[in-house]
Amino acid sequence: MRVSRTQVWDCVAAAVAVPLFVFGTEVASRTRVPPFRALDVLAYALLVVSGLALATRSRSPSGLLGVMLACCAAMLARHHAYGPIFLGLYVALASVVIRYGLRHGLAAVGVSGTVLLAADMIGWGRMWVADDVGAWTIWYASSLLPFVAGAMLRMERDRRASAARADEERRLRRFQDERLAVAREVHDVVGHSLSVISMRAGVALHVAHRRPEQALEALEAIRTTSKEALDELRTALDILKDRQSRPGPERIEGLVESIRTAGQSVSLTVHGDPTGLPATMGHIVYRTVQEALTNVVRHANAATATVMIDYGRTEVIVEVTDDGTGQAGAAPGNGIAGMRERVTALHGTLTAGPRAEGGFAVHARLPRTGTPTARTQPPAAASPGKHGGREPKGTKH
Fold it and tell me: What topology is assigned to 173-367 in CATH?
């Protein structure tokens, strides 16, 4: 049977308590006035039993309290001196409060005070002063001291346990958030890249026999896009290692250029300066544009798409529109849901739906003072792609 460290310390305390109780009570018996009854065999037995009982403190606090209370009451009823045996009783009372709570602790205080008072009255016999208020209250008051100490220790233990549970919940929540963030990153990277590859492959198949040189260009673009996608996917999966920065506004022009290379007409308009934009917000702006353009390539059947970004002083506005027809009756998918979750994480708003004049529009507003919430915060380190890292010029392309 394995013995815990607490039980070992209980045994040590018992080994110390036995000689302390015996020697301390012997000294008290000789020096107290009026004289108390001298220690006899039964008194020594009570002192030894009470000391050894401390070894059971952690296993059975209620059993320890019963033994200690019986021994202390017997010593009082036999009119022996008040010795250190009562320290063992107070340890038992505090242990009951810690183990079983305040309600059981108060009950133990009441029972202990009453039993000790009755035993003390028996011990003093005719010398008992019935109108002495102090004599009536001393045992209840002394029993309250270990109760208070035990209550404080229990509250501290409960506080630490609650803090430990909260830390564990936060750890699990962070783990789940990181998994969700990785899933979003993979969805954005793979979805965008495969859409571009699919478009270029369609071009290659269409011109393979008539214009072989264009087919070769399309195949080269597929090779480049797939390599970039693999690199970005690899670094996205390295998110937990926190080794690389996330793509931000400086990557948007390269992203648009990669869509143009795939054969989709896209114009980019940038107002304001992204300098000083928090990295998390810049990453969300990039991912919003990327996912919106991916949807254009995959679903819109659009002739042109327009990207407008306005870096204002108080908010950032992102708008991606197209003149296609493919999304008008489509239900929102994972891409739009992911964009909305990212934007709302920064206390922003995102709308996506068909336009009255035709086509589809994605509109996001992000307050520059927004901070990510715990459940939807983007990952601490996702990877930039290699779409070309040219700085936005603040002009229309």
Answer: Heat Shock Protein 90 (3.30.565)
